[in-house]
UniProtKB/TrEMBL annotation:
This is RND family efflux transporter, MFP subunit. Its main location: other. Belongs to the membrane fusion protein (MFP) (TC 8.A.1) family. One of its GO terms (cellular component) is efflux pump complex. It comes from Methylobacterium phyllostachyos. The keyword Transport applies. Residues 148-182 form a coiled coil. Keywords: Coiled coil, Transport.
């Protein structure tokens, strides 16, 4: 127990010594005659030290935050000043006046210049067929031969009857000659008897009889002349019958009416065909393809500029490397009231037979302009709640947002009806923040100028 008390006393003494040394290190000036009791009395309480550290840290944070806030405020002032004084650099292009023909592209369809459905004019059987679908024929080439024995016999009978009528005419003419001779003899006898009766050598009865004979002979001559006319009329009628039958026999050989290609065949050898069956099934269909008609329905908006002689180009989607030139050859003049379109035909030469009837094509017309229009690139257009406008650069490098009226949209370019004059400079792709009266730094766009120089080819290809 004694040892434990001594140990505790030793530990208390050591702690007192450490406290004294700490007090001396904190404030050595206060080491006066007061001794250990004064040093221990001036030390701050240990619990106030974290509070001082927190106050110092808070003050440093507030100072650093104020410095950053001041820097941000100064940067915002500089940015605001730059935004106020900023002059954007914009691409510009001068508006041009286009007096070239207007390009108008419409769908169309190719048709044969001449089309014929061949029907039979002779009743009989197909004895021979020389062409088929796709055969190219010349005018007068034999297509089929029809065997028509009934028609041939009718023609022979008509020719025989014509011979009979011709023989009857010869007999009638001979009767006329005989009647003329009888009239001559009767006239001479009457004159002689009349003279003798006047001299008393013949009776009056004889004179009357000779006069009656003369009148009878004259009547017989008139009747003979009438028979001749009847015979001639019969011959004329019979000749017409013979000619008709001969013509029908020529229809036994069906020939091509013009140069072309056989597009349809509905008969074969041995088929029975009937004459004058225009409402039935034709034997063949033939199209002329050296020149094709391209039919186009032109809407009312473009019908005024379409007239005979307007140049046109025809393209087929399946033949992108071929362009077929043609001209407007005819139109209906009047528009269809139901659809307000003008029936227009373009003649296209087709010597090689590349084009075929019935193709769907596109036709591009070069419609002459009645008056030129101002054109600008489509990228100059501003479309917002106020309508369609363009930014026009003024001489003092400020912009004016000017409303425009679009006449035609050509895709890359716009034809304007009102709003701009030739030579005025417009801004391309104007910034969204551009306002009326803003100052800009205009720079010409050479790329758009080069594209404008190629515009005629692009317009013809549309």
């Amino acid at each position: 127990m004694r040892l434990d008390s001594d140990a505790h006393a030793f530990d208390a003494h050591a702690a007192a010594e450490r406290a004294h040394r700490h007090a001396v290190e904190i404030d050595p000036l206060r080491q006066d005659g007061a001794g250990e009791t004064l040093a221990h009395a001036d030390l701050p309480p240990p619990r106030k030290r974290p509070f001082l550290v927190a106050v110092l840290a808070l003050g440093s944070a507030l100072g650093l935050g104020g410095w950053h806030h001041w820097q941000t405020y100064q940067a915002s002032l500089e940015t605001q000043a730059e935004a106020v004084d900023f002059v954007p650099t914009v691409r510009t292009l001068s508006a041009t006046e286009d007096d070239r023909p207007t390009s108008l592209t419409l769908p169309g369809q190719t048709e044969a210049f001449d089309h014929a459905d061949i029907f039979a004019r002779a009743t009989g059987y197909i004895a021979e067929r020389r062409v088929d679908i796709g055969s190219r024929v010349k005018k007068g080439d034999l297509l089929v031969r029809i065997a028509a024995p009934d028609l041939d016999q009718q023609a022979r009978q008509a020719e025989a009857q014509l011979g009979q009528f011709q023989a009857q005419l010869a007999v009638a003419r001979a009767d006329v000659e005989q009647a003329k001779a009888n009239v001559t003899l009767a006239n001479a006898t009457d004159a002689r008897t009349t003279t003798l009766a006047g001299q008393g050598w013949a009776s009056k009865q004889n004179a009357d009889q000779t006069r009656a004979g003369m009148l009878t002979a004259t009547a017989a001559l008139t009747a003979a002349d009438a028979k001749v006319k009847v015979a001639e009329a019969n011959i004329t009628a019979q000749q017409a019958t013979v000619d008709r039958l001969r013509t029908l026999t020529t229809f036994e050989n069906v020939v091509a009416p013009f140069d072309g290609v056989v597009t349809a065949r509905m008969v074969d050898v041995g088929d029975l065909v009937h004459a004058d069956s225009g409402g039935g099934t034709p034997l063949f269909s033939i199209d002329s393809t050296d020149v094709l008609r391209v039919t186009v329905q032109v809407p009312q908006s473009a019908a005024v500029g379409i007239h005979d002689g307007v140049q046109a180009r025809v393209r087929v989607a399946q033949m992108p490397d071929h362009v077929f030139d043609g001209t407007v050859s005819r139109s209906s003049v009047a528009l269809r009231s139901s659809v307000r379109t003008l029936d227009t035909e373009v003649d296209v030469k087709n010597p090689g037979g590349i084009l075929r009837p019935g193709l769907y094509v596109t036709v591009t017309f070069a419609v002459p302009r009645t008056h030129p229009r101002v054109t600008v690139p489509s990228e100059a257009l501003i479309f917002d709640a106020t309508g369609t406008r363009v930014a026009v650069v003024q001489p003092d490098d400020t912009v004016q947002l000017r409303p425009i009226t679009i006449a035609r949209d050509l895709g890359t370019r716009l034809e304007l009806r009102t709003g701009l004059k030739t030579g005025e400079t417009v801004v391309l792709n104007p910034p969204a923040t551009l306002r009326d009266g803003d100052r800009v730094d205009p720079k010409g766009d050479s790329a758009v100028t080069a594209a404008t120089a190629k515009l005629p080819e692009q317009a013809s290809a549309e």
